[in-house]
Amino acid sequence: MANFTIETVVDSLKKEFPHCEVSINSSEAINKPGQIITVKPKDKNIGATLYWNRIKPQIEKEGNIQAVIDMVRKGIENVPASYNAEWIQDYEYVRNKLVICICSSETNNLENTPYHKVAGDLVEYYRIMVDDFTDSGEATITVKDNLLKMWGKNAEQIREDALKSSQDIRPFVLHSIMDEFKEILGYTPEVDECPLWVATNVKKIYGAAVIAYPKFFDDVREKIGSNCYLLPSSTHEVLLAPATKMVQDVGFMAEMVREINKTEVAPEDRLSNNVFFVDINEKTIKLAS
Fold it and tell me: Staple 189 to which of 76, 156, 193, 248, CB 3.0 to 4.6 Å?
């Protein structure tokens, strides 16, 4: 079996895309630490970015980099001839593209990044939505302190505007996990078999941030009707378990979360190993005990 390293993959990409600049860099993106490969056409100012810790398992599994080559080709074909980023200086334009994201302060470097504590290790940070260049996801820019300085804004103002625009760009969705089971199984199990609810947004991208939305507690009260345990499934969604229907063994739930994070959730999508308690009357989220 071939021994693939980031250097050998870069060498192969340089041969496959001679019209591009291919380089290795360090990722400063929140929840996406490690090395990245950048493939940029020489006549353009943006290109494709590959996260090494994400593509490496796929390369090792398939024994070749063909899927990576196809991914890069698709990415650079969809890159516009030029990209004008001057709009980022106009805060009145940017404020409508701000979105809230959630991450763990224990596993991410938040230096020079404005953030707001939610509960335990969970914190909010902010991204700017950028026009999509491919159909494979969203392009975003993390808000850093230097952007606040350029705009003449403080973290509180950014948070207020991000809360407003997030609810428009990524509306809150709360549904029973039974709805997903129905799609898979073809029937709806009895509710008591698995009284879990999924909280996310309509795009299911960075959907865990909905726990910061002002309407979160009211929607939980309306649909679930009780306090809940919050299980941080991933950065894209959280699970809510009604406290009235769960065996209140926080240690067991925390162990379950840790095991799922370890075996089922990609490193860049992990949110937290902790279990939280949602009080719909006090409208608070805190570490469960």
Answer: 193
Q: Give CA–CA dist 46/170, Å, rounded.
A: 26
Cα separation, 81 vs 64, in Å, equals 30
> Among the listed ranges 12-21, 179-188, 230-239, which one has the minimum average pLDDT value?
179-188
Rg (the chain; Cα; Å): 21
Q: Which two tokens stand for residue 208?
A: 């865990």
d(CA 76, CA 46): 9
What digits encode the pLDDT tens for the residues 37-81?
888 888 877 778 888 877 888 888 888 889 889 888 887 776 666
C-alpha 233/C-alpha 122 separation (Å) is: 13
Q: How far apart are CA 113 and CA 277, in angstroms?
A: 27
The count of other CB atoms within 10 Å of the CB of residue 96 is 13
Beta-carbon count within 10 A of 239 CB: 20
Going by C-alpha positions, the residue among 227, 228, 170 that lies closest to residue 201 is: 170
Residue 69 to residue 81: CA distance in whole angstroms: 20
